[in-house]
Design goal:
- With 644 residues, this protein is an alpha/beta fold.
- The protein has 28 helices and eight strands.
- The longest helix is centred in the middle third of the chain and has 42 residues, at 285-326.
- The chain starts with 8 loop residues before the first strand and ends with a helix.
- Residues 8-171 form the FeoB-type G domain.
Length: 644
């Protein structure tokens, strides 16, 4: 296959959600991208040059999809990948565990006419389940190279070496009938001459789609000839076009599976899938979730906090003592190691307080993520979310919010209903703590005991449900909620190396994004303090914090830091607890407030991208007002309980 010296051939990774595309992308390019045993992990296109050979290819990781034509109308990233200028080949990732569904997707992708190479993923897992797939036989039946991916270095090299042999698939034995073939030819002849992928476009239009879906880069043609041709061709068919296409595809898939798939007998009670069923059960699911939270709480409080305190005692305290002895009293001491010092509040808080806590929490969270627990948790929560007027497509974004609120907000683009999309994004921004926030909350509130963590968590759940109920009650119901459809990945035993690598990657991202923010935040507070502005704010706003929230004026520092980074505010709250400036009740209020108050900048930008500036600002101000009101009520309840 010829390649262009000016622009490398683009090899686009296509496949079902959670079919191993991102893992393969990392192995082909050496560039790490987020990998998880959950759908909707990849949202945007990732591009990097092929590294395992010297051939000039650019590997493109596209989001997973289950239906090519639905993706062409809704999936901007997939559409962008297929419409890119230059030579394009497809690396189709077939999931050996979902072989029939993968073959169905393959039949749709092959209508694009792109040169194709098939990567057969999840082979070892399928073998462990008693499934064996004849890869050479599949290559013969498709007429394209098929390379098994078992995780070894040789596998990815063989896949890279197969790219020059990519060619359009010609599925042996696939027959939709002469009448349907003639109808597709009629529609194809009516398409604009510059229509990309005419074979796929003809099929799409015959099924009622629009030609405009195939013109993402420029203005779509206004000629309605294809639609008229499709209507005429459909009337001449001996049946419904979709049924004819589906029947022909199913017959070919069934025949292919009979020829190429062997199923060995195995025990029906697979322990991992039993765990999956139990985690979704209304009987066993809640106790499993509570147990996971309790174990995580113990690891963070007794493990991460101990590490953080040890580092502060063994690393920072000696440095602080040394600098106190050599620095002159006054400006430089305050600037470097004072209450708002760039070393004390900036570097030490980030590296010695927050980083150890996030390290332990991310190890636990990444383990659960790679197991595939989060999608099963989505099933467990669907009944509650249904009461809030949310359909199936809103469930996964909300659960993903416990990992990263920004990514979860971007994932909410997949929700068709504008009303549901607004409610979902509001709830993500409001009282759902992201992974980092949750780990730090456990560390902060864990210093006050398990009961404090329970009260804070219960308060967040109550206000989140109340907000969802009110939004569902008062927003106009102009669209029906979507049904609950979620393909569950299998529960897997996490690979320690993969979990560790993801943890290191997330910690690197935290330091890359936050270390400068910690230092800048310290500089800002130092400057405000030296100018007397900070003390003036405490004089004015301190009584308000005390009266309505029951918090000391020193908490104003943490509230200001929320504007920069929630982790910076959390580190300051930990320091206030160390100094004895926050008691049991105040610690609960502080954690609850900082979880809800002032969504992070990245999440606000994501809201703006999905909803627009007006709606995102509405959510921003509503979330902050609701956070202040909720914490005021919580303070009154805790005061009443303490007096009772």
């Amino acid at each position: 296959m010829s390649t262009s010296a000016a622009k490398p051939t683009q090899a686009v990774l296509l496949g079902l959600p959670n079919s191993g595309k991102s893992t393969l992308f990392t192995r082909l390019t050496g560039r790490y991208v987020a990998v998880a045993n959950a759908p909707l992990t990849t949202l945007e296109l990732e591009r990097a040059p092929l590294l395992v050979t010297d051939d000039p290819y650019e590997i493109v990781d596209a989001p997973g999809f289950t239906d090519l034509f639905a993706s062409l109308s809704r999936g901007e990233a997939v559409r962008e990948a297929l419409a890119a200028p230059g030579q394009i080949i497809a690396i189709l990732c077939l999931d050996a565990n979902r072989f029939k569904q993968s073959l169905s997707l393959l039949l749709e992708v092959q209508t694009l006419g792109l040169p194709m190479v098939v990567a057969l993923n999840m082979v070892e897992e399928a073998n462990n389940r008693g499934l064996t797939i004849d890869a050479p036989g599949l290559a013969d039946r498709l007429g394209v190279p098929v390379v098994e991916q078992r995780g070894g270095a040789d596998d990815v090299s063989l896949l890279a070496q197969a790219l020059p042999q990519a060619r359009p698939a010609r599925p042996e034995g696939l027959d939709h009938g002469a009448a349907l073939g003639a109808a597709l030819e009629i529609v194809a002849a009516s398409l604009p001459v510059d229509c990309p992928y005419p074979g796929a476009a003809a099929r799409h239009v015959l099924l009622g789609g629009a030609v405009a879906d195939f013109f993402p880069a420029g203005p779509a043609p206004s000629d309605n000839s294809p639609a008229l041709a499709a209507a005429a061709a459909a009337r001449a068919l001996p049946g419904d076009a979709l049924s004819l296409l589906t029947n022909g595809a199913n017959q070919w898939i069934d025949a292919t599976c009979r020829l190429l798939v062997q199923q060995r007998s195995r025990h029906d009670r697979d322990i991992l899938q039993l765990v999956a069923r139990m985690s979704r059960s209304l009987v066993f699911g809640p106790p499993i979730l509570i147990s996971i939270l309790y174990v995580t709480f113990i690891l963070v409080v007794d493990g991460a906090n101990a590490i953080a305190e040890l580092l502060n005692a063994r690393v920072w305290n000696p440095i602080h003592a040394y600098l106190s002895g050599v620095l002159p009293q006054g400006f430089w001491t305050d600037f470097l190691i004072g209450d708002y010092g760039v070393l004390s509040m900036g570097l030490a808080n980030a590296l010695l307080t927050v980083l150890p806590i996030l390290s332990v929490f991310y190890l636990v969270f990444n383990t659960l993520e790679d197991m595939g627990y989060l999608p099963n948790l989505s099933v467990l929560t669907r009944r509650i979310l249904g009461r809030l007027g949310l359909g199936g497509s809103a469930i996964m974004p909300l659960v993903l919010g416990f990992g990263c609120k920004t990514m979860a907000t971007l994932t909410a683009r997949t929700i068709a209903s504008k009303r549901e999309r607004f409610i979902t994004i509001f709830l993500i921004a409001f009282a759902i703590p992201c992974a980092g926030q949750m780990g730090l909350n456990m560390s902060i509130i864990g210093r006050m005991g398990l009961s404090a963590f329970f009260i804070s968590s219960l308060a967040l759940v109550v206000v989140e449900l109340a907000a969802g109920y009110l939004l569902n009650r008062f927003l106009s119901h102009t669209e029906e909620a979507e049904g609950f459809i979620l393909e569950l990945p299998p529960i897997r035993i996490p690979q320690p190396k993969a979990v560790l690598r993801k943890t290191v990657h997330r910690l690197y991202l935290f330091l890359d994004e936050s270390l400068g923010v910690f230092i800048l935040a310290a500089l800002s507070l130092f400057t405000l303090d030296r100018l007397g502005i900070l003390q003036g704010l405490k004089t004015v706003l301190g009584p308000v914090l005390e009266k309505f929230l029951g918090l000391p004026a020193s908490m104003l520092d943490a509230v200001i830091l929320l504007l920069a980074r929630h982790e910076a505010a959390a580190a300051l709250i930990i320091e206030l607890i160390r100094k004895g400036q926050l008691d049991y009740r105040q610690s609960i209020i502080a954690v609850t407030l900082t979880t809800m108050f002032i969504p992070c900048f990245a999440n606000v930008m994501a809201m703006t991208k999905v909803l627009g500036a007006r709606s995102s600002m509405t959510i921003f101000f509503a979330v902050n007002l609701a956070a202040l009101a909720s914490c005021s009520v919580l303070n009154l309840l805790l005061q009443w309980y303490g007096q009772a």
